[in-house]
Amino acid sequence: MEIIMFFKHLLHRFERDEVLGRAAELAYFFLLSLFPFLIFLLTLIAYVPVSQEDVLGVIRQYAPGDTMHIIETNVLRILSEQRGELLSFGIIATIWFASNGINAIVRAFNRAYDVYENRSFFMARGVAILLTLAMVFVIIVALLLPVFGREIGLFIFASYGLSDEFLDIWNAIRWGVSFVILFFVFSCLYLAAPNIRLRIRDILAGSLFATVGWITVSSLFSYYVSNFGNYTAMYGSLGGIIVLLVWFYLSGLMIIIGGEINAIVLQSGKNYVS
Questions:
Q1: Total structural domains in the chain?
Q2: Is position 273 within any domain?
Q3: Which domain holds residue 7?
Q4: Model confidence, pTM
């Protein structure tokens, strides 16, 4: 009965907080920040032992349909044409557009917790920029871990003549590593973004939902687009962009619903009556 009341309350908040509209807002900002972010990231990796293929390979795991072709073609073309000024441009553009996206997430979370944004413009923007930079750092670490982890593992296992076995084990656990990293990123977002003091245990339910939900939705949508969806027939050359927007929309939806779940757990406890 409590579970039924929980979902009824979640549905009520889903309508009250205009979750669908806020997810569309997030999709718009995600699209704006995608290419500046990738340009910045791919330019930055010249200074770390990670290849462009490592970065694009992470996206390729989840990107649906032909969107990966659009991402690779445009980003690599820009990188080949202009190199020197891209890092500074990428930093500025990434911070601005991505922090706009974080601001939209902050507003959605504040609405979920029924709190007002009483922080000053500079404080709120500073929080958004810090969260953006933190996510950049986490993503870089996430890219470095598989590279170094694989090399270290191969060295250790090769010493015992087990290099082939390690490759099988590594392929099995890399999804687990991705899950842990995503869970950590979402947890940081849910903990720091809303204008309310939260404890780690207050955001665990939403972080778990967002992680599982995002991986599941991305995989299912990618399968649907690859096997059934024919967006090109309807939208022509814009089909790939539409697929990318829908993917971002579903991603934003998972993030906001996770925030709503955290708000219900914190505010309502076992009493799911608004």
A1: 1
A2: no
A3: 2-268
A4: 0.77
Check residue 229 and give its pLDDT.
Answer: 63
Distances (CA, A) of 62 to 68, 165, 218, 219, 259: 9, 26, 6, 6, 22
Using one digit for the tens of pLDDT, what is the confidence trace for 202-232? 999 999 999 999 989 888 888 887 776 666 6
Give the containing element (helix H, strand E) for 171: helix 163-192
Residue 251 resides in a domain: yes
- Could you tell me if 241 and 70 are in contact, meaning their C-beta atoms sit under 8 angstroms apart? yes
Q: In sequence order, what are the residues at sequence separation of 6 or more whose Cβ sits closer than 8 angstroms to the Cβ of residue 122?
A: none
> Which carries the bigger pLDDT value, residue 6 or residue 227?
6
Please, are residues 248 and 63 in contact by the beta-carbon 8 Å criterion?
no
* Cβ-defined contacts of 9-14 (< 8 Å, 24+): 9/264, 9/268, 9/272, 9/273, 9/274, 10/257, 10/260, 10/261, 10/264, 12/274, 13/112, 13/260, 13/263, 13/264, 13/274, 14/257, 14/260
| Two tokens, residue 137 | 């750092």
